[in-house]
Write a structure and sequence with these properties.
The protein is an alpha/beta fold. The protein contains 13 helices and 16 strands. Helix 2 packs across helix 12 and helix 2 packs parallel to helix 13. The structure holds flavin mononucleotide. Flavin mononucleotide binds next to helix 1, strand 9, strand 12 and helix 12.
């Protein structure tokens, strides 16, 4: 069960015509936990037929209830497709809320870069104006070796967040990924959240789907629709097995996924990036992916945002919360993942994501063999904070890259 914060007001209708008011405090894929308002307690809510979440004047969704016992109401989501959309949106806004307001990073905060030393050049005979941060990546020239890694901004805030990030990426001429497009592929009404190229047509935009979507028999069509929806320049497929295993409702069967990724690379006429999201891509997985045609990897190593922890924090179930803490620091540190992958796959493109927070770390990542560094959480927080905050942060990071380049001679 996931905790709903802040709790959502609801009205329940019983079979005898009686109505009750309460709050949705937690919800899973099959049941909702409700706290009834005190004034209704003299009437014991029984035999609930439906609940309306939201207010009467602004209803967001009606759930048909199969059975109710005290505050626990069961429903069948498969017979009510709109519930899936509601739960999906809720999950995304919880992710955003947790990322904005909690410490969600690996607690040991070791992404491996703390042990990487760059050469020091005490007296570089160079001019600041001649320090060049530009880089060639996936067929385009960008002004700096960084990208905004794909992050979902949810339904309510998604449009404004994506717009702010797109503006920042365009201003600095760097690529940007969008977050998972699943909700828009399942419900076209959400597609505009991702269509930032309408306003920023020059942006190099990376589409995003998860391995969960590859389980569907229409997965090739799904990928093509994701690309077409946003006129993407590349497609990222995120691999998030640990996150799925922490979630009660997450996927548990990943058989045949690597071959399917291979089919996507041959079918989609664009670069395909396989990205981990905080656990790190290991060499054997990356080699298998390279065999089926993948040539760009985002290592998504440990030491940055911890999705195990975030999923734990979404739950009121103590077992799930414990799971999140136990696996908070699981994974291959980003620096190690980059070093190992570069050694194993010398010709592949490698993105170093996972705990990259400044320009010095970006240069360390490049020194270890990455082509680009990806930055997530701090740019998302900056976009939430204000209109030009993500652009300012990117500007600061690019200046740091220049300082690091000048002082190291790299
Ligand atoms: C709020 C938020 C939402 C995210 N949503 C997605 C997503 O939808 N798809 C995806 O591939 N990665 C997603 N990520 C993961 C990031 O792309 C990135 O891999 C991860 O946050 C590690 O980078 P960081 O340590 O710089 O945050 C999300 C990250 C954040 C912080």
């Amino acid at each position: 069960m996931i905790q709903v914060s802040p709790h959502l007001p609801l009205t329940a209708l019983a079979r005898d015509g009686q109505t009750y008011q309460g709050e949705l405090i937690a919800i899973s894929e099959v049941s909702a936990r409700v706290e009834w308002y005190k004034k209704d307690l003299s009437l014991k809510p029984t035999d609930i037929q439906s609940i309306l979440i939201g207010s009467d004047s602004n209803p967001s969704i009606v759930f048909k209830i199969e059975s109710s016992m005290d505050g626990l109401l069961s429903f069948d989501k498969d017979s009510q497709p709109e519930i899936r959309d509601f739960l999906h949106g809720l999950r995304k806004s919880q992710h955003l809320d947790i990322c904005a307001n909690h410490d969600v990073e690996h607690s040991s905060r070791r992404n491996g870069f703390e042990d990487v030393e760059l050469p020091v050049l005490a007296l570089p005979e160079t001019a600041w104006a001649d320090i060049d941060t530009s880089v060639s990546f996936l067929g385009r020239i960008f002004s700096a070796p960084i990208l905004i890694t794909g992050m979902t901004g949810g339904v309510a805030q998604g449009t404004i967040i994506n717009e702010r990030l797109a503006e920042a990426a365009t201003a600095h001429n760097i690529p940007m990924g969008v977050g998972s497009q699943r909700m828009a592929l399942e419900n076209e009404a959400h597609a505009d959240i991702f269509r930032v190229k309408r306003k920023y047509p020059k942006l190099f935009l990376i589409g995003n789907i998860g391995i969960g979507q590859l389980r569907s028999k229409d997965y090739l069509d799904f990928c093509q629709r994701a690309v077409d929806m946003i006129s993407a320049d590349a497609l990222a497929i995120h691999v998030n097995v640990l996150q799925e295993l922490i979630q009660i409702e997450g996927d548990r069967d990943f058989r045949g996924i690597i071959d399917k990724i291979g089919h996507v690379t041959t079918k989609i006429n664009l670069p395909v990036i396989v990205k981990e999201v905080g656990v790190g891509l290991d060499v054997s997985t990356a080699k298998r992916l390279a065999e089926v045609g993948v040539s760009c990897f985002d290592v998504g190593g440990s030491g940055g945002t911890s999705w195990a922890l975030i999923e734990g924090l979404r739950s009121i179930d103590p077992i799930i919360r414990r799971r999140g803490e136990v696996f908070r620091n699981w994974g291959i540190p980003t620096a190690k993942a980059v070093r190992d992958l570069r050694q194993a796959l010398p010709k592949s493109s490698i993105i170093a994501t996972g705990g990259v927070r400044d320009g010095l770390t970006v240069l360390k990542a490049l020194h270890l063999g990455a082509n680009m560094a990806g930055i997530g959480l701090p740019l998302m927080r900056a976009a939430i904070e204000g209109a030009d905050q993500s652009s300012k942060l990117l500007g600061a990071i690019i200046e740091e890259i220049k300082i690091a380049k000048m002082c190291s001679g790299l």
